[in-house]
Specification:
4 copies of one chain form a homotetramer. Chain A is built from 10 helices and no strands. With 210 residues, chain A is mainly α. In chain A, α5 runs parallel beside α8 and α8 packs antiparallel against α10. At the A-B interface, α1, α6, α7, α8 and α9 of A face α1, α6, α7, α8 and α9 of B. The first copy, chain A, binds a DNA duplex (21 and 21 nucleotides) through α1 and α3.
Chain lengths: 210, 210, 210, 210
DNA sequence: TATGAATGAGACTTCATTCAT
DNA sequence: TATGAATGAAGTCTCATTCAT
């Protein structure tokens, strides 16, 4: 009983730390994030972070592992084997958009990891990402075999999709800060990621369909 | 004469500082970059940086203004008004790839700026970027008017293109660090940005053509 | 009965804490020792230490009191009044060596206390040490009175003896770490404290005998 | 000219840091010493220590290297080859006492190094110490060959000498703090290291002479 | 008694920036 | 202009101690 309560307390504190850390790493990056700030916003003592999780590096590792591991899992779950390649591709894009929408931190972290060449990326997480790339490769190959997709470089298709979605997600803040970036196109109100994802679906299907 | 020499030396020193700074900001981001390291690698005294350019923020501003301003200029130059929308779109992608290829630092910096919501992005640079977005909007609109492109959200198309190219560029290092990321696709040797850009051209044209 | 068991358990826990603390204070000194480490190695919860013994200072006091108090007692016991001064002196050295050999921690702690000028030395322990010094003073005085020893400064003799024995004990580890320290003399295998003590006996007797 | 002044300033600051550090390491040991305190007492900014010397470990290494290296040099200088073994032995003890007297920090640091098994002792310093041990070994061997010394374990003789001198030096503070330690012997006023060294000379010569 | 969690104070170290020459 | 030195602010991490159960 008291064990239970204690466990709940332990995980609750750790969870609060991890969530706050995800936010702050996402806002400021690994180097820009301040452990003090994480503790302050999480409402815990700074030493608690070291007690429960470990140093800044370990904290970062936990955060991105949780984020990306979860994402990979969702992706696998959502794409049932029985679907047609076309439907799978749509689901893939939809799911990706959903993940990014529900975990707003994932977009920024992914971009920064790409920018730094994965300097802080633990092996485990690299595998999660590789899994996601593997899925789309499979879908495209399948489509080619069924004669409904043209032959493409799957990695490039993957980058187009993920690039469009992640950058769209991120651009909302930059666009609101620098209206000049939206003025040129006439879709200011279109900050809805769902709609952008639908557009990506349409464009990508056009691109790969025979 | 000595004035001239002094001027040349002055600009030469400044140039060396700026080039080194571009490298290091690109490798490590604004927060991760160390003024000491920039001075060391540029072979100048640390105080020289403050004398010639200013503080870290000013240095960063100069670097990205040089990088992006130049890019916008190249883009305008390369897309002559007389071309067909299809040809313009191809040129646009080709030019973008060329810029990224010739200025390897631009990719990482752009990603990090996106990630941080343009926290360190000066107005001037935002305008440069807006210019680039404006160009593709124009191309797509023109194609729609001529009846050869379907109606699309230009901003999404832009993100697909730039995302694919920039991420492809960056992914080379991350892929070589984590081979697992390449294993799934069979295009390891394909690390050539030119080829990826050609693929992007083909896919995007498929996507927008009527 | 349960009271008894509880008492036994209580003292057993305290004993385990004290033994471990002695080890760790000996290895690392007061400042270098970590309460966490003591708890870990003793297999008890950190708070237990505070409950059973007290804070770090109190723990240290207990440890050295146990160590030195015991030593003083042994010394008194071993030197029966009926012996000749020569025999007493031999016994004194022999006993000292025995104490140091059986309580390996005592050597390091004594050196560090000397080094710090007894900063952490409780009065009680100082008296224990004074007792030991008193004993050899008595022996030497007695020998002088009996006309078999020359007149000496007893404190210096004491320092020679204790210095040789304690430093010999400690030097084993430093010599094995830095073989260069043993190379110069040809007695590498001679790391036996007993043999060194015999040599000290011989030398000291030579030194003080008429 | 300005170079000279700058050099002087540089070495002067470094010297001040090093001297203060020697004091504080001697008072408190490596773990007990506080970098803040060193900076404060040296009258320099804390960051200056890192600029001029390096981190705490490096600072400690420099301090003991200066101390022990200097000591080894003095010892070699003072013992001219032409002297008799007896005279050399006296000089050896005298010089040791002189070194300890002039560098009060050396005694405490040496004791603590012995206590910790040379945990923080750089190789270079170990060699300095080995050199000192080598000298007395040589002296005793020479005396044996000339038939004026008995055969002894040189390392033990060395420990007796250095133990007596170093402990005597250190004991002054502990004795003044705990008068009980002096009461038993009647030589309170004898805190003069010179006199103690003379006594050591006499005793050691008695001990080793045939 | 025993223990996991919490915490404030403080330790070491780094860094951008400025100073003095 | 150029540079070695200096510095204050801040950042990461540790540790003895206490709390709450």
């Amino acid at each position: 009983m008291s064990q239970q309560k204690s466990n709940r307390k332990r995980t609750e504190t750790a969870r609060r730390i991890l969530n706050t850390a995800a936010e702050i790493f996402s806002e400021s990056g690994f180097e820009g994030a301040r452990v003090d700030e994480i503790a302050r916003r999480a409402g815990v003592n700074k030493a608690s972070i070291y007690y429960h999780i470990g140093d800044k590096q370990a904290l970062y590792a936990r955060v991105i592992h949780d984020l990306f591991g979860n994402a990979a899992g969702q992706m696998v779950e959502n794409i049932s084997a029985s679907l047609s390649p076309t439907e799978k591709l749509k689901r893939y894009i939809h799911t990706l958009a959903g993940i990014v929408d529900q975990n707003p931190q994932i977009a920024a972290i992914m971009l920064r990891e790409q920018a730094s060449g994965g300097k802080n990326l633990p092996e485990l997480v690299a595998q999660d990402i590789a899994g996601i790339v593997g899925i789309i490769s499979g879908i495209l190959d399948e489509g080619v075999k069924e004669g409904i997709f043209i032959k493409t470089k799957p990695f490039v298709v993957h980058l187009m999709i993920i690039g469009a979605i992640v950058l769209y997600k991120m651009s909302s803040s930059i666009r609101s800060k620098y209206p000049v970036l939206s003025e040129t196109s006439n879709e200011q109100k279109d900050q809805n990621l769902k709609q952008a994802a639908a557009e990506v679906q349409r464009l990508v299907l056009n691109a790969v369909k025979k």
